[in-house]
């Protein structure tokens, strides 16, 4: 039966099908294929035949798979994804690979010193490369169709795309079984694209474990990937490990260098990948990508490694980050590791009038740092006021934070001023700032807590008690410092049994490792209730906890949490307890234990001086107090003890005693023992009215004196 004639070409005959129905659209398209030179070629079921005008070399024909590969690529380039997929479906990959393997071997460059064999297809694209590219385009077509398909068919399309992509890589491996191939550029490009596409297709198909394995295979297999392709895979793999919520098993490397680092979990593996990418950038092998630093910041934050992050940020070349942004990030990192002075120095540079003086976040961070140190409180007040001024009126939360930190700075500043009038004004401003802040953010637990501590230090116990209860309600009783505040306020109101009930409730709600400060408080409550033996039992429980912490951490230091109690503090507390009971031998043993942990301590020297004074060895006691004062210039108990001891020495020592006691009250205005001994000094010096005022202040403070200073809460 005669076929249709092409315009300007020869007439060919093809075999007609059994039925007389017209060919389908796809069948019609299969009749015409663009050759490598752009000419029209007609195909049959077996071999492609050359047209009269074709520029293909003489004797070269296109077989069935090649014809479909060329036609499918043409349709894909036109955007006809479905038509391309129909054409690609007719390619038998395994049969094609077996047929093309000899020609591919001919195309593979020979070893050095051996002549290259000539292939009959040396003037055209290798047929295996053509077919493999077609299968890659097929998987890409399936992926595109999956994105635009109805919901219940999406995963099926993506899974099929992944399987097709995997077949490309499996075929390349089967053709080159003697190691990594040195293949032609076009085939290498197809391999690169397939390696990149495979894990993405598995992810979209919801097969996360297969995606994980594909990523690792891509990076560990010898695919001769170029640097940019490898870098893209590493970045995508790192993001997958961080954000996929899929916990994969650690990589099982068949061979590794002894002592090399093997990541134990997703985060460690992601950090390793990101650091490799950064190293490539430092060496100039890849382009800068800001997302790498964002991912690394997130990963190191999860691992609590801000110092490592700071080092990487410092290594980034100038011009990548704006200076103020870099300084702010470095300040956050150094503040997180406790290097507050370094963090503040970065913020000072950023907030310079020539840089970014009105950056709200930098101002708030600087204020927060200053609010934690007395000597920086004045600087913090200035930062806080600038932050409040430049905060937008609509941003109530940021303004509340500024007022909160302002209150903290004013509270710290009130403790270092010398004038009682100034102190009173600053305390009023502190409460005013807290009140304005809480009006903007009523349910901020930290704000409620800080306000409660300020009320307690100003001896407004009813207001402090109300804040403590609000904080416990706001946190559900899960934060131990709220219970401690409640117990201390109750102890200041002389309600020791209720304070002990609150402490026991806190112990029930608190994890074992966080019970140190509560057990210490319980011991002091027992002492206040004249139950010294029960206090000793509480200290024993505390020592057992510290020992367990040391064994679990493998460290000689017992501090695990910020509010935990060190072993030194326990022995010091026991020494003070035994000294109060006049058990001098036991007290001395405890002091030796404390001294072994910390050779030079004002608290230890003060306890030693107290024991010497109790034995009427006044000169030795005074020397011990002076040594304690020399180690810690603002150690209030030592100043009070020196003043009290000098008061007993006679009239000529009264001015010196008054000086020490007044200085102690400057540092701690609510120290009742300082007021008591200052009253005695005034009485011995003939100032009866001043003595009466001091005695009255001492009595009033004794009625609201907690078993532990409120300063321990901040």
TrEMBL record:
Regions of compositional bias (Basic and acidic residues) in chain numbering: 26-42
Key word Plastid present: no
Residues in TPR repeats: 324-357, 672-705
Secretion signal span: none
Biased composition (Polar residues): 116-125
Region (Disordered), start-end ranges: 1-59, 102-125
Domain of life: Eukaryota
Listed Low complexity bias regions: 50-59
Key words of the record: TPR repeat
Record bears the keyword Secreted: no
Protein name: Calmodulin-binding protein MPCBP
